[in-house]
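Students often ask why we bother encoding 3D structure as a string. The short answer is that it lets us treat folding as translation between two languages. Here is a chain of 203 residues written in the first language.
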Amino acid sequence: MKLMWWALGLGGLFTVLPVTIQEFLRPDNVLLSLIHAFQVNLMSGFVFYFVLGYALTQLSINTAKMWLAGVGAFIGTVVIIIGTESQSIVAGHLNQAFQANVNLWIMLQASGLFLIIRGLKLTKLSKTLKLISELSLPIYLVHPIFLGAILKLHLLKPDALHLLVAYVLVFMGATVFAWCYQGILRWLRSYFRPTVTRQYSQD
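And here it is in the second language, the structure alphabet:
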């Protein structure tokens, strides 16, 4: 467990911290040059969150920690919204620098919400929450396709309202795709399982 926290600490120091602070630095800043020269990508986003998620499951949750997690999630969300809007207005197009996977603000948002859900100790998940949980991975994997389509059609403008509408549309599109994918996958499993069972029984 100590080794895991050491890995997260080093990943945070050499990956998360540089990715987070470089968005606040001017292009000619000496510190930015040093970050680009010496940044070490110890963990990819997938590996980092896999390790972080497991580490968070080992924490004991109480009311104080749930409130702290909520504050962290709120701060992360606000910074993401404000940062994305301000950077997009300057760039004249969607700038997702504040939404990088290993960005501190994304980490605060994801970790905070994760800890809150853990702290609630839900004994029986609602059907909606269970469905979203099952679809979360395919939604994550295909949402860039829908975002790319919106960008190609020039339907996105760099202001908060258009960004919000775009993200709702992307989430809805990815969710429908993921739901259809899961339905087809279940059908294929139910269709081929009897065949496989029959072959084994004949052998």
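Translate back mentally: Helices lie at 2-21, 30-38, 45-57, 63-91, 104-120, 127-152, 160-202. Keep this in mind for the problem set.
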